[in-house]
Amino acid sequence: MFQKKQKAKQDIPTSSLPDIIFLLLFFFMVSTVIKKSQGIPIVTPAAHQTKKIESKRHLAYIWADDENRISIDDKLIPVSAIGSISGIIREKLDQDNRLIVSLKIDKRAKMGLVTDIQEQLRDAYAVRVNYSTRFK
Amino acid sequence: MADIAFLLLIFFLLTTTMDTDKGIPMVLPERGGEVKINPKNIAKILVNADGQILFDNKIVGDAELKDLLETRIKERGMDADGNPKLIVSIKTDRQTDYERYINVLDIVKESGATKISIAEPERE
Question: pTM of the prediction?
Answer without folding.
Answer: 0.79
